[in-house]
Every structure is written in structure tokens, then in C-alpha cells.
Amino acid sequence: xxxxxxxxxxxxxxxxxxxxxxxxxxxxxxxxxxxxxxxxxxxxxxxxxxxxxxxxxxxxxxxxxxxxxxxxxxxxxxxxxxxxxxxxxxxxxxxxxxxxxxxxxxxxxxxxxxxxxxxxxxxxxxxxxxxxxxxxxxxxxxxxxxxxxxxxxxxxxxxxxxxxxxxxxxxxxxxxxxxxxxxxxxxxxxxxxxxxxxxxxxxxxxxxxxxxxxxxxxxxxxxxxxxxxxxxxxxxxxxxxxxxxxxxxxxxxxxxxxxxxxxxxxxxxxxxxxxxxxxxxxxxxxxxxxxxxxxxxxxxxxxxxxxxxxxxxxxxxxxxxxxxxxxxxxxxxxxxxxxxxxxxxxxxxxxxxxxxxxxxxxxxxxxxxxxxxxxxxxxxxxx
Length: 383
Description:
It is a single chain. It contains 7 helices and 22 strands. By secondary structure, it is an alpha+beta fold. The chain has 3 domains: 66-146, Trypsin-like serine proteases (Thrombin, subunit H, Beta Barrel), CATH 2.40.10.10; 160-256, Beta Barrel (Thrombin, subunit H), CATH 2.40.10; 270-378, PDZ domain (Pdz3 Domain). A 6-stranded antiparallel β-barrel has the order 1-2-3-6-5-4. It has a 6-stranded antiparallel β-barrel with strand order 7-8-9-12-11-10. Strands 14, 15, 18, 19, 20 and 21 form a 6-stranded antiparallel sheet that branches.
């Protein structure tokens, strides 16, 4: 121990002498040049200070954005979940929507506001408002909420019936909370998709415009800045972000139910008032039907539209697999001249009508083909 102490003191003295006399120990790294080699001033090459010269495509993009942005809103929903100990835990979600009138009605997706205890809407000018749900159509993933404000700018609603594959479209919304984000793409396809409860949504718009979480409920726009769809779903391929396949509900499907949502709070969707069996060629051959397609009326619901119009359900008990059914009823093959091949076709036709509309139903009664006029009733739990 006595020997180690002098040795340690000697090492400290030697190290201090070395650092004090050797300048290179404090030199800057070799990649940092000394002051003498630095430029006196940085010279940049910049473009001339002239007015921006946008091409026609860019000008259209900018025009669409400026026209639509004041109508697009960010929706923050607060719901309540419960932890392991049944304690209330607030949960926030975000989505988009767009103003449809100066009274403050906003169209969005139902899944954006479902189960929300509180809704807050933020406009493009950053003004915030409390909102309430006015009406909802869960089967088509649509909802209308309302704020009370002034100077609101409604979106211009277009016509989704005229859309074609290849047409340019834009999506504006709040993906991942990034407000006022616009993306562009084309219509990749027009196809039927399923709503949250499996209800078919016909002529849904498939696009490659980037749609991400937070875009839900925002507008899909044409090149004139008109709303042609409501951004609703994405195919992710397992990732929680855009994979280049997004879907929007056609605006015409929303326009058909907006009045009901605002005035009644729900959709008064029409119904024939029947229980039915879709007919395939195999079934038609087995039970001797005059056509190998359509829907067979198993039962006309008492008091329903079909019964009031004189349509008939089955009277002969039989089994379809292990399921008892009634045969002998009318076979529906068309409505208003549009073929009804199965229950999906029937549902699609009903979606294009309103309660109280009158339709011409083409049926086979036995071997006889005939037309029956039916005033549609309102759908309940059976259709």
C-alpha cells in the first residue's frame, strides 16, 4: 500500500505534464477545418423572385383544396371504457366529416361517433364546437351530427351516379390527426361492399388515393371540388394504414337518407314485408319452379306491404336441409323491370326507394306470370 501511493502520484503528474505540453491532445477532429479555411459568406443559388407558375394540374389541385377545405371538419369523440377493476377510462378517437348546410349539420361515418359520450368538432379555421348526434344509419355507416355556429361553409354535393373508373378523385381529412390533409388518386373500381352489419352498399367507390385512420367520414371529391363520396373503409393487408385500396360510400346513397336522418333520426328504409328464400337453379329444379332465379315468398308478413297488395306466401310445409319452410308462394323475379336474382338484388332495389313508394313487382304464381303494384312499407326486423 505504501508503494502504490507514490506510483499513483507519479502517474498523475506525468499525465498532467503531457496534456499541458502536447497541443494535439486538444486539436479538433480532422474533418473540422480551422478558421482560416472557412468561407467569408455562403453563396446560394436561388430562383428568381417571381409569382409562382403552376401548371394546369397543380392549379386544379389547389382550386379543389381551397374550395373544399372550409367545409371539412375534424371530429374528436370521447367514449368510456372500463379497466380490469371496472374503473371508467375515457378513450378518444378521431375522424373527419363535412358540413352539409348552414344550420350546422355535418355528415360523417357512424363508426366515427358510435358510443361517443362527447363530440368536439374543429373547423379548418381552428374554431372548436361541441356537437350532438342528430341521426344515424349504422347499416350504411352514416351519421349526421350538428354544431351551432355562424359563418359555416357547406360542401357542394355532386352526383355519384356519373362516376367512371379512371376518373380523378381527392380525399381530404385528418389522417392520424394531421388536419387538412389532401391526397389524390383515381377511381379504381365501382363495386358493392358490405356495411358494418353486412348490408350491401352498391356502387361503392374504390380508390388508390391514400386513406388512413382519421380520414373516415371525410369527403371524396371530384375535380370540380364536389363531394361524390364519404371515405369509409380501407383494405390494409394487416397494417393499420393505407395499402392503396380505400372505399367511399357513394354520395347518392347518403343523399337518399339525409332527410330521414335529420328529421326523424333514423332511416325509414322500405320493405316488401316478406320472409323469402333465394332461388337457385338447383332449388328451382327440386321444387318445380317456372324460373331458376328470384326470391320465393315463404311468408307475407301480416299487415305488411306484400300482404296488403295481395302477394301470397307459402302454404305447403317442406324442409330445406334441416330448416322448415313453406312452399307454394309467389316467386318474385323483377321489380320495376329490374331483375331480382337473389336477396341481394332485392335489398339493393329497396335501398333505392323510400317508404311509401309504389313499385311494380313481377311474379310467377304457379306457372302464370303477372305484375302486382305494391306500396312499400317501413322495414322493421323482418324484410
